[in-house]
Design a protein that fits this description.
CATH superfamily: Lumazine/riboflavin synthase
Helix content: 40-55%
Strand order of the largest sheet: 2-1-3-4
Structural class: alpha/beta
CATH class: Alpha Beta
Number of helices: 5
Number of domains: 1
Length: about 160
């Protein structure tokens, strides 16, 4: 067997700062995602003083807010939270696509991890399932991804 080195992030999160950027649109779903993210961050050692919540009007606006926060720095990672629910028009495709592309661009341009906790679902029932019922809480999942990415980037030496 060949010897090789493996680099990966762990889930220790003490002394890390996180911004949660949350959409107000579909707020009854997004509030549950926020609760899930905060719970996960706290369980992994993040102090309340190191968590800030910033509300944007909707998912379409999340990338701009995240970019300004990433440029401002001081955050180890940004967790974007929102819910885009398909309707009868193509609006869903424009908002979901722009949001995901924009958030990826922010991470690539700034080097600050931006975790994607934006639900893109066909029905309100699917959103409810992913915000803390049958399918878990995707806000918590996004927080775990953010923690792991911070540790991974630190391990790589960025």
């Amino acid at each position: 067997m060949t010897d090789y080195k493996t680099i990966e992030g762990d889930f220790t999160a003490k002394n890390m700062r996180f911004a949660l950027v949350a959409s107000r649109f579909n707020g009854f779903i997004v509030e549950q995602l926020i609760k899930g993210a905060i719970d996960m961050l706290q369980r992994h050692g993040v102090a309340n003083k190191d968590i800030e919540i910033i509300h944007a009007p909707g998912a379409f606006e999340l990338p701009l807010v995240c970019k300004l926060l990433a440029d401002k720095s001081g955050y180890d990672a940004i967790i974007a939270l929102g819910a885009v629910i398909r309707g009868a028009t193509p609006h869903f495709d424009y908002v979901a696509g722009s949001c995901s592309r924009g958030l990826a661009d922010v991470a690539m341009q700034t080097g600050v991890p931006v975790s994607f906790g934006v639900l893109t679902v066909d029905t309100i029932e699917q959103a409810i399932e992913r915000a803390g019922t049958k399918a878990g809480n995707k806000g918590g999942d996004a927080a775990m991804t953010a923690i792991e990415m911070v540790n991974l980037l630190r391990a790589i030496g960025s």
